[in-house]
Amino acid sequence: MKPLRSRSDRARAIVAYLKYAYPKPKSELRYTTPFQFVVAVILSAQCTDKVVNRVTEKLFRKYKTVLDFARAKPRVFEKEISSITFFRNKTKSIISSAKTVVAKHGGIVPALYSELVELHGVGYKTAHVIAGELFNQWEGIPTDTHVRRFALRFDLVDSKELTKISKELETLIPKADWKYVNNGLVLYGRYVCPAKKHDCKAHPLTRFWPQAAIRWPKAN
Hints:
mainly alpha
C-alpha cells in the first residue's frame, strides 16, 4: 500500500472506508418524534447512547410532542432522567428548548443551523447532529469524543478543542463527504476500535496508517 504521508491522503482513505462500512449515516439514539431526537441528543452529552436509550424508553412514552416537554414540571422531569449525567442542567435545557420551539417555530423543530443553536443546550456539534439526522442537511462535521480521538490519532488536525477540530476537518474533507464522518467514526469507535488502549494494528483504519497504533491522545 502506498504510504499515506499527507493529511489529505489519510482523510481520503478514512472517509472511503467509512462510506463503504457505514453507507447510511444514522444515529443509534432511539426516538419517534423529531423533538424526541433533540431531547436524546441533549441527554447524550457526556453520557453513552446506551444509557440514554434506557432512560428514554420510558420517558418517551410519556413525553411525545414538543408541547409535552414544554409543559413538563422540572422537579418531576429531573427525577425521570436522574440517572443521566448533569440531569438538572439538561432538564433546564430541554424544557427551555421545547418552549422556544413552541413559541418561535410553531412546535416544529427548525432545520436551519442558525435557529437550532438558539435552543438552550444546543451547540455546534449538537445542531449539526440534529440537522443531519432529521433533515439530511450536513452543513458541518459534528465532533464528539470519537471523532476527536481519531482525528488526533491519525494526525488529521492540530487543534484539540471540539469545534476547532470540526473546522479543520471541514477544510480537509470535501463537503459531499461530511455526513459520513461523525456517524462513521462513532460506530467504528464503539464496535471496532474503542478508546481504551489496545493492540489495533490489524484494524481497517490503522492499516492505512500504522503510526496510529502507537498514538493514544489524552481525553482532554
